[in-house]
Amino acid sequence: MSEAVSQIMGEKSLLQPSSSDSNRILSERLGEILSPEPSALVEGTLKVKVQTKLVQGSMPIAISHEKSEIELHLEIVPAAELAATQTARINDSRVLSNQHIIYLTGEDSAQIRDLIKEIYQCEEIHLRHRTEAAEKEVADFVRAQGQRAELLKRDLDTALQNAFLKGSFVFRGKPTAVATRGTELLAACKAQVQQVAADVFHRFKEAPENVETNLAERLLQTKDLSTIASAVDPLSLVKKQGNATRINDAHPALVAILDHLKKRGQVDGRKLLDDFDRAPFGWFKDTTRYLVAALLIADRIRIRVASQWIKVSGEKAIEGLKNNNAFGKVDVASNDKTVSQETLLRAATRLLSVTGQNILPMPQNVSRGVQEHFPKFQRDYASLAAELTAAGLPGSERTGRLQKQLSQVLQGDASEAPTVLGAEECELIDNLVWAREVRKAFDQKLDDTALAAGELLREIPLLPKIGAAEILLNQSTTIRAELTSFLEREDFFTVGADIRNRLQNLNLLVKAGAEQLSSEFTKSLDLQRDAIRSTSVWATLPEADRSTFSEELDAIDLGTATDLAGMRSLVNRKLEADSLLARMRSKVEIRAKEVAEAKAKPPTPDPDTSTPPTPTPGHKPEPARIKARRRYETGAEVKPLIKELQDAADADRPVDLEIE
After folding, report:
1. Angle of helix 269-277 versus helix 252-264 axis, rounded to 10
2. Cα-to-chain-centroid distance, residue 178
3. How many Å apart are CA 207 and CA 198, to the nearest integer?
4. CA-based, 20 to 30 A from 391: which of 253, 509, 605, 622?
């Protein structure tokens, strides 16, 4: 075994994976084991996917990055903590906010930890040394480390499968042994997801059809419900009672929408489609829009199209309901006539929360309060969408919706304000509170922090995968994932401290990576300079040429980098330096060839120059008078002086130097 291989083996033995490195390896392997991602089919129509996350500490790390309403949280813990963790997850699963999470805890082991450690060591050695020009034994050893890492990953997959197959799925307080769902982890997860999806989307069966896009329009164009075709009524909404035919507003799907509107008051079409697209419904958006059309025919709702409230089926109603894009601009509300005292109390309380002013729970007072304060909200938050977009933060659509809601509630002297603000849930007030928190966070410069973080998140993956730059990419994976998840939240202001902390840590990694990359490139440049100077052709050059070329080589300077911009600039300068070095090698070889050819030829007299007279014995030659300067800036400037001195030396003449 060569000394170089021994050194690398010693380096390998000192490598220890950090928690983020271990989590990265675990996430990669679990992602492979659970590929393709588990999914389910509800009522043979609705495809439901699951997002898998690795739980290590308090922050779940996404393994699959497509968000889903159902999540699978995988966790491995030491054997001594397994029972307590299982009990804790059963309790966690009963919490309302965790009702869509499947928990699965596996038993950690020394084998799993040893495999993770050696995989990290093998990959790190392969990553660090794979591009080095080394002896064959070193190259073979480094390549073998990469191959061993792949073999160890298969062993880790088996160990993880065994660890989780011994565990139990936990969903809504109920544990289910994994082994009862399947003998392979992926198959068991698919079976569990199928069961869970049916529970999570238990109201999908109320409207389990994916109707045609134009069905709402066709229903609204139906003049006589008694003659309606079954193709236009796939959910059997039309009911015949004696001689009368009407929309059955007691149909479970229609009741669900009416309850939703009663609870929330006025809702815009896009929000309504999104609400019923989620659990527990999961309805297709074309189907929800079709149900809204049926309720309009039943005179149970009213819709606002182009600032005008409509309660009957007609051209404007058809225009507003003909497709999902048009419906997104429509507002929907119950067709109620009176406002209860309970509604007025809620409206007054909500006005107090956003204005700080006590308002009597009377319709005219609520409307007057809205007219007084809400125009200021329009002005204060008018630029918020642009500021969010500029900072790379979510919420611009929500801000646009807020401006639309403010404009609408102010229409007609805010006559609809008591109903809108007094609904059981009021998105307008929620949006105002949210906008206030966003503005407060921006006043504390969180937008600048988000902008800086966004730039790093975009630029780091674009760095070339070489040396320290690739190490930076790998080491920052977890931090970048966490930072991305924080910046994708509409309530990013609640994790402002976490965003600043992760950005600071990421900047430290970038600085360390920049300094390491500078060191690597400088070392490489020095090696290439030395390689040129140590060639056989270099030794054949005259001293003057070697001096000139050395000055040009030493003039090549890469500089140093301390940040991401510096790293990008450093990479560009490295490319320029490599090009300059290639040209220098060519120039040295050409000059060496010229020198060799000149030495091989007999000297030929210059026809313009007379042959120096051969001094006769006893006769002293006439001195050569040569002018010279005290300083020469370049080698090219001194060459004529060297030639004159060489000619005088060849003629064996004395020299009188005249210094200018």
Report:
1. 120
2. 33
3. 14
4. 509
Residue 290 near residue 211, CB atoms below 8 Å: yes
User: How far is 127 from 519, CA to CA, in rounded Å?
Assistant: 17
How crowded is residue 469: how many other Cβ atoms within 10 Å of its Cβ? 21
pLDDT confidence bin for 237, thresholds 50/70/90: very high
The strand pairing partners of 310, in sequence order, are 303
Which alpha helices (DSSP H) does 75-177 contain, by range? 79-92, 110-129, 136-165
Length of the chain: 660
Amino acid at 247: I
Q: What is the pLDDT of residue 617?
A: 53
CA neighbor of 503 nearest in space, from 443, 566, 465, 455: 455
| Residue 506 DSSP SS3 | helix
> Which residue bears the tokens 């999961």?
282
**At 449, which helix (H) or strand (E)?**
helix 446-459
Structural contact between residues 269 and 330, judged by C-beta atoms closer than 8 angstroms: yes
Residues 6+ apart with CB under 8 A from 618: none
CA distance 239 to 248: 6
DSSP 339: -
Residue 243 DSSP label: T
Q: Are 635 and 552 in contact (CB under 8 A)?
A: no
Q: Which amino acid is at 615?
A: P
Is-above-0.85 flag for pTM?
A: no
Cα R_g (the chain), whole angstroms? 39
The long-range contacts involving 440-448, CB below 8 angstroms and separated by at least 24 positions, are 440/493, 441/492, 441/493, 441/496, 442/387, 442/391, 444/496, 446/492, 446/493, 446/496, 446/499, 446/500, 447/387, 447/388, 447/390, 447/391, 447/393, 448/391
For 131-164, how does the pLDDT look when each residue is reduced to its tens digit (9 = 90+)? 775 678 888 899 999 999 999 999 999 999 999 9
3-state secondary structure of 64: coil
What's 492's DSSP letter? G
Exposure string (b/e) for 491-508, b if CB count within 10 Å is 16 or more? ebbebbeebbebbeebee
